[in-house]
Write a structure and sequence with these properties.
75% of the residues lie in helices and 0% in strands. It has 14 helices and no strands.
Length: 326
């Protein structure tokens, strides 16, 4: 197991390296916009002196490959500035604050919101998927499948807007505006995070309900399930110890890969509920073409995805004893 994990971590290095190249080329070469033009405005674009001074101040002078080396940290080996290799994500072009310092405050918020949403999705979809499989082609099955299709089709941010709008009109209610961290006020923090977490978890629940149903139906038809019933094992033992456990492998795959997507997808909800997470930080950075912030956040999202995939692969051995990593 340790050897397998070490190999996967080593393979993640070239993957992240390719991610950095893609991010940099997309922002600095292919994007038809320039942060300097955005900062100096329409009247300053014809002033080459002002433009050159601003480029020097923001560290945007020199060739693009040298700027890439500075960001990644490769130039550090021959006396250049530190970069990603040393954990330095640079500084915001607009606020001047270190990107890493901002992420230390925002990553836990977005990660917590994503974890809560994932638990909501799992706790909602797995039991309903099992019920739909056990009641195949009956009223409950048709109703739960229809519910799954509806949840997958309806945008969750639209539900959030409706809840806030009608909550304020009918019940004179609105979500808290002032965000409270868990360490400052746990009760207020839970009140702020609970509603967006529940709503975010609704959309993936629709697909998971149908996936759990399909996997359970496939497993329940296997010979070892009939053998377990023939041995006189109880229905709950057969269902939860044998059937559900073997049906979980593709489900865990979808859940594990979907967690970083849920965390990245909290952008809209952090805007709606005024939550200071990575998503809201990324929206502001994109509006301002803040290169270091966009590059740093995209790199963090890619890193989270790789770690999530690794954890999913490792979990296979615990779900199915027949799987071994050698």
């Amino acid at each position: 197991m340790q050897k397998y994990v070490a190999q996967r971590l080593l393979l993640a290095i070239p993957t992240l390296f390719m991610v950095t190249i893609f991010i940099f080329v997309l922002l600095r070469v292919l994007l038809p916009a320039d942060v300097i033009d955005l900062i100096i405005g329409e009247y300053g674009r014809n002033d080459p002196t002002l433009r050159a001074a601003l480029e020097k101040e923001l560290g945007l002078t020199g060739h693009l490959y040298s700027q890439y080396f500075d960001w990644v940290g490769i130039s550090w080996f021959w006396g250049g500035p530190t970069g990603l290799i040393q954990g330095d994500l640079g500084e915001s072009l607009h606020s001047g604050r270190p990107v890493l310092g901002e992420l230390k405050k925002r990553v836990p918020v977005s990660f917590e919101l994503g974890i809560w949403a994932q638990f909501t999705s799992i706790g909602f979809s797995v039991p309903l998927g099992v019920i739909a499989a056990l009641r195949q082609d009956k009223f409950a099955d048709y109703g739960l499948r229809s519910l799954g299709i509806m949840l997958a089709a309806v945008p969750n941010f639209w539900i959030a807007v409706l809840i806030i709008t009608f909550g304020s009109i009918w019940f004179n209610w609105a979500p808290p505006i002032n965000f409270q961290y868990l360490t400052d006020d746990p009760v207020a923090h839970i009140k702020i995070m609970l509603l967006p977490a529940l709503i975010i978890g609704l959309t993936p629940s629709g697909s998971l309900i149908r996936l759990v149903r399909t996997q359970m139906l496939e497993v329940l038809r296997q010979d070892y399930i009939r053998t377990a019933h023939a041995k006189g094992l109880s229905q709950n033992t057969v269902l939860y110890k044998h059937a559900l456990r073997n049906a979980l492998i593709p489900i865990v795959t979808v859940i594990g890969i979907g967690l970083p997507q849920i965390i990245a997808g909290t952008v809209i909800f952090e805007q709606i509920f005024i939550i200071p997470g990575m998503g809201r930080y990324l929206v502001d950075a994109v509006n301002n073409l803040d290169y270091p912030v966009i590059q740093g956040l995209t790199f963090v999202f890619a890193f989270l995805l790789l770690i999530s995939i690794l954890l999913v692969d490792i979990s296979y051995a615990f779900l199915d004893p027949r799987i071994r990593f050698s």
